[in-house]
Amino acid sequence: MIQYNYNHILSAIIYRKIADLDLASQLHGSQDFKHFTFSQINIPRRKPSKNGLISKDGKFNFYISSPHDYLIQTMVEGYLEDPNVIFKGDNLMVEQVELLKQPDFKKKMKMKTMSPVITRIKREDGRIWDLNPGDLRFFTALQQNLIRKYNSFYDDVYDGDEYVKIVPDIKSVKRKRITIDKNGTPTYHRAYLMHFDMEADEKLVKFAYDCGLGEKNSMGFGMLNFVEDNSNRGSK
User: Fold this and answer.
1) Active-site hit among 4, 6, 28, 209
2) Comparing 2-93 with 108-226, is the CATH topology the same?
3) CA atoms of 178 and 47, how far apart (whole Å)
4) What is the model's pTM?
5) What is the CATH number of domain 108-226?
6) Among 36, 75, 29, which residue's Cα sits nearest to residue 220?
7) From the candidates 4, 8, 15, 163, which is the catalytic residue?
8) Is 182 in a helix, a strand, or coil?
9) Is 28 a known active-site residue?
10) Are 76 and 97 in contact (CB under 8 A)?
11) What is the 3-state secondary structure (H, E, C) of 197-220?
């Protein structure tokens, strides 16, 4: 059974499968952007229960994506060298790891989230507040976060057009309450699944696709896919 809040479990599995142990340690200990993201778990044959989702045939899959080619390479090596993973005490076997071709990037694309998007602000009282798509600050924060991540990854200042327009399909917006439990200390986040139109410099569209949109990408938030072709996605 896969519990409903599994982000921290899946994140730990990903770190443990990075074959380059120095890189794994560096990423895990970094307070900066980690420049990778992963999708929600997909269970083709599932049955819901009170405490989680049951896979009827014991199989599930998920996607990992990063603009860091070597990071993807060393993750793949880790799964190939040792296909066993421990998921909440269960010993599972990875049957397939596949690198998928990226699509053609355009300035205007129809996209959807493969894991919910989160973005936040710090209020005057010092509390961190999760924004929602009904607040214009949600989209401003996404744009600013994307530029900061781009600058961090390339260790340079982005000198292109910073215009980023994101228009959600309101009917598709779905709020998810995600619990992240680190060392027995849970934190709660409001994040959003949605379909949306994105318009930006092609470099920023590609980077959002590779790295994720919004905050906490390395904890399984903000992974994107193009609506036109659901097969071309990151690395599985």
Assistant:
1) 28
2) yes
3) 20
4) 0.91
5) 3.30.70.1900
6) 36
7) 15
8) strand
9) yes
10) yes
11) EEEECHHHHHHHHHHCCCCCHHHC
Contact 223, 38 (CB under 8 A): yes
Distance set, CA 199 to CA 33, 64, 108, 117, 235 (Å)? 23, 24, 4, 17, 24
Q: What is the CATH architecture assignment of 2-93? A: 2-Layer Sandwich (3.30)
83 near 28, Cβ under 8 Å? Answer: no
Please state the domain extents for the chain.
Answer: 2-93, 108-226
From 202, 171, 196, select the one nearest 110 (Cα to Cα). Answer: 196
Strand partners, 44: none
pLDDT in tens, the chain (236 residues): 788 889 999 999 999 999 999 999 999 899 899 999 999 999 999 888 888 888 888 899 999 999 999 999 999 999 999 999 988 888 999 999 998 888 899 999 999 999 999 999 988 898 899 999 999 999 999 999 999 999 999 999 999 999 999 999 999 999 999 999 877 788 999 999 999 999 999 999 999 999 999 999 999 999 999 987 544 554 43
Helices within 82-231 (DSSP H only) = 136-154, 202-211
Chain-centre distance for alpha carbon 58: 23
Catalytic residue at 188?
no
Cβ atoms of 52 and 3 closer than 8 Å: yes
Q: Report d(CA 65, CA 39) in Å as an integer.
A: 9
- Beta-carbon-side half-sphere exposure of residue 33 (alpha carbons within 13 Å): 24
